[in-house]
TrEMBL record, chains A, B:
This is STAS domain-containing protein. Pfam families: STAS (PF01740). Residues 2-113 form the STAS domain. Coiled coil: none annotated. It comes from Caenimonas aquaedulcis. InterPro entries: Bact_StressResp_Reg, STAS_dom, STAS_dom_sf. It comes from the Bacteria. PROSITE patterns: STAS (PS50801).
Length: 125, 125
């Protein structure tokens, strides 16, 4: 089965989503991320979706799910690189990505994670 | 056509290769990387291949090609995350990834790029 690699950079984890997600892949990613957060003690998760041209309710739920799992494990999730057209479509569809933090690109996402720092200031959103 | 996203982090670019490369995708990646190096002034390129279970001569040539292009543009390329089985197979096949620098994971690759610093000490390998 296809597994999305998770890269560790210091206290952050980085996931680049490049292909349309299937159920199995999404579940495996949630599993792998939870394990990786537990093993590495990571405080932040960056999910890059710049390659996605469509974000439907399934992907939205998956992002919210990962965000929720990470939050329970005391890590902050930031979704980065969303294409403008995707943002427009999300709003038109009424999908608000509740509880998911976003940033324009990886660098801004990292800044956000560094700012949230040890207090995990966004943990209660 | 499927394009592999290139993430910028400071003066480094990060590419995560997750699927078996086709000719078109490989060519597009070389193009995109050359443009991105030119636009961003990046000094280092990290290519993560931890998701690849097979690295054949085509992928080997592609990595060497990217490395060569980056070198001409004064950037150092480091291939990271190679699976042990891939390394074994490469040697058995007699593919030595000539001119391609490697590191165990993204973090060590970044350290290597930082060490190579402004002088691009590895540029002449």
């Amino acid at each position: 089965m296809y597994r999305i690699p998770i890269l560790q950079m210091g206290s952050f984890l980085l996931v680049t989503i490049q292909v349309d997600m299937q159920d199995q892949t999404a579940l495996a990613l949630q599993d792998d991320l939870a394990n990786k957060i537990s093993n590495s003690g990571a405080r932040g998760v960056l999910i890059d979706i710049s390659a996605l041209e469509i974000v439907d309710s399934f992907v939205g739920r998956m992002l919210a799910g990962i965000s929720g799992i990470a939050r329970i494990m005391d890590a902050t999730t930031v979704v980065v690189g969303m294409q403008p057209a995707v943002a427009i479509t999300l709003v038109e569809l009424g999908l608000s990505l509740q509880g998911v933090r976003t940033a324009l690109n990886v660098e801004k996402g990292m800044d956000l994670l560094r700012l949230s720092g040890g207090e995990n200031a966004f943990g209660r959103r």
